[in-house]
Amino acid sequence: MSWLKAVYTIWYRDVLRFLRDRARIVSSLGQPLFFLVIFGNGLAPAMTAGMGNVDFRSFLFPGIVSMAVLFTAVFSAVSIVWDREFGFLKEVLVAPVPRSAVALGKVAGGSTTAMFQGILLLVLAPLVRVHLTPSQWITLVAMMLLLAATMTSFGILIAARMRSMEGFHMMMNFLLMPMFFLSGAFFPLRDVPLWMAWLAKVDPVTYGVDAFRQVILQRTVPEFVLRLLTLHPLEVNLALLVAYWLLFLFPAVWMFARQE
Amino acid sequence: MQAIEAERLTRRFGDFTAVEEVSFAVAEGEIFAFLGPNGAGKTTTINMLCTLLRPTSGTARVGGHDVRREPHAVRRRIGLVFQDPSLDDRLTAWQNLWFHAMLYDLPRMEFQQRARYLLDLVELTEHAHREVRTFSGGMKRRLEIARGLLHRPKVLFLDEPTLGLDPQTRRHIWEHIFSLREKEGSTIFFTTHYMDEAENADRIAIIDHGRIVALDTPENLKATIGGDVLLIRTSDDPLSARRLREGLGLEARTTQEGLLVEAQNADQLIPVVLNLLQNGQGDPVSVYSVNLRRPSLDDVFIKLTGRALRDEEASPLDRMRLSGRLWSRSRR
Residues A192, A230: contact at Cβ < 8 Å? Predict the structure, then answer.
């Protein structure tokens, strides 16, 4: 019981901080929006023809949603590094609660805030001429939560052993950016070089982007075109995301619990 | 029962021994200080006593429980105020206390009563619902002390409780700590590298290079210095030291501040010393100043370690701490 209470407490703190910090919500919407507005409109004339006349902005939109989820999730996990040396996490680590509860609370908190961030972008769908039904909304929110949980667990796995902010910047440059670029968020992963296709296959974000794209564009793009623009059936994407989530979650909790 | 008992507590980081075979006991209700320069092993010791670091060897009992075997029992019985603020500064004072109560599984009614009482004790009642980031350094520290006491710990650990605070605020914090002991009967273990702060303790352990070099009451420690202390500044300290030894049989230690001489009846010694240095055989030495004082803990530290207790070069962690402050400031 006190274990659940601890998970809840850590989760609640993340959510409370997120809701109180309006400035951060707005500023972290900025980057995805720049990508959407500038890349979207800049590349639309060149790209639209090559994609079965699907508006490039609509194509890009699911990628941008996953970007918001991905970055919010990883950032909230990596804030642990800072929190541990100089912040609130110390107070948590010395409290009589199991470390596993702290780690799970962090996963839950990071996932929830990343999901909120994704929802805020999803609201803008009509701007790229995509209209979502309630059932699409429900599916998407659930999928965002799954991608967010996967990436928060990934972030905690990285952060559990990290002691400096330099390490964090390294990780940003050498892991997070490639993961995002290779995920197919910006371009269809069709007819790409073999090495890129393989890297995309091991990139968990690929399956999130692919799943988002299928659900978001379901009613906007004819089915045979959508099939050309996506990689795997929805169930495959979701199954792989769950697999990745568990693959990251267990070592993340274990590493976090073992740290001093 | 003792509140804290450490037995040959040792911690190594790779080849480096941060704390070496440290043994001591702290009685219930005692205020106990760990005094030493930066990097002496004070924080490492606190972290081991608080179960944040596992000892490499040796052990300790805190509140009657073994830090290795029963870390959870220890954690429930201690309160901790860290060197760096560990408040969530985006939340209010009350919310910070509430999170603490949740983590320590306090019943709601008890939390509310206790939080009101403690906020009153540290004079933060009217700021309870303000965000912590608007607080001054002293207010934050007071809130952390209140938070550390929320779950009625047997032992309160304070790691450099007044680091970075101005003298007036430091005095104020200490008034609070004394009133805590009076009203709550808490055992207080604190670390410091300020001599004057260590004087607030009932007993002091002086720690240097990971070892306890002395452990006693402030009075007894100062009594180990024979009599008074003369601080003499001259144009040639090594020569003067030799002359004092040869002429008067006095041991003079060369320090950055000048020559330190311990002596009985030092007031009567001043004219003799002046005469010897300025008019004695050989080259005359100019004496710039002579200062007579009661021995301080600083003198005890110099006597024990041969060095003055002053801030040494910033450790990597200190540098990270500094850049962290800049970083978090720029985020606002």
Answer: no
